[in-house]
Design a protein that fits this description.
Elements lengths: L3 H20 L4 E9 L2 E8 L17 H8 L17 E3 L4 E4 L15 E2 L4 E7 L2 E6 L4 E6 L6 E2 L4 E5 L1
Antiparallel strand pairs: 1-2, 3-10, 4-6, 4-9, 5-8, 6-7, 8-10
Function: This protein is a component of the acetyl coenzyme A carboxylase complex; first, biotin carboxylase catalyzes the carboxylation of the carrier protein and then the transcarboxylase transfers the carboxyl group to form malonyl-CoA.
Pathway: Lipid metabolism; fatty acid biosynthesis
Keywords: Biotin, Fatty acid biosynthesis, Fatty acid metabolism, Lipid biosynthesis, Lipid metabolism
């Protein structure tokens, strides 16, 4: 088996994988390194991610409720304070990073109180270096924005409320 130096490099490698996991908002990463015959390193790094980005919004009084219900695996229908259960909720079609404007320093696509038409771009979600424009599913007024610019978003997480 390996000596102290290879153990140190293995530890550094595992720490780098953990950082990669966190930085790219991944839930699991598995790597196998073959050094020589009968000498390999098989690493699986995983983490649990809280599904609701809402607790980052200090303005929302209901923010702790959806996070708690998500951690307990309760159905969304049992938590009326959950923004995802709102009939006007626009949910994320993917995992990625939210951008409220086309580029840094530009005006946001929408803000609270904006009137939108069906198909208008609400925001962008970057996933795997691809910018995905998220369209309004219906016409209405933006009542609440539930995500932060530059923040991570999970599949199915509520992005905003349009009524």
């Amino acid at each position: 088996m390996g000596n102290k130096t290879s153990q140190d490099s293995d530890v550094s490698f595992i720490q780098a994988l953990a950082e990669l996991l966190r930085a790219n908002d991944l839930t699991e990463l598995q790597v196998k390194r073959d050094y020589a015959e009968n000498d390999s390193l098989n690493v699986r790094v995983s983490r649990q991610i809280q599904a609701a980005p809402a607790p980052q919004q200090p303005i929302m009084a209901q923010a702790p409720a959806p996070a708690a219900s998500a951690q307990m695996q309760a159905p969304a229908a049992t938590a009326p304070a959950d923004p995802a259960a709102h009939p006007g909720a626009v949910t994320s079609p993917m995992v990625g990073t939210v951008y409220m404007a086309a580029e840094p320093g530009a005006a946001a696509f929408v803000s609270t109180g904006s009137t939108v038409k069906e198909g208008d771009t609400l925001l962008i979600i970057e996933a795997m270096k691809t910018m995905n424009h998220i369209p309004a599913p219906r016409a209405g007024t933006v009542k609440r924005i539930l995500v932060e610019d530059g923040g991570p978003v999970e599949f199915g997480a509520p992005l905003m409320i349009i009524e």
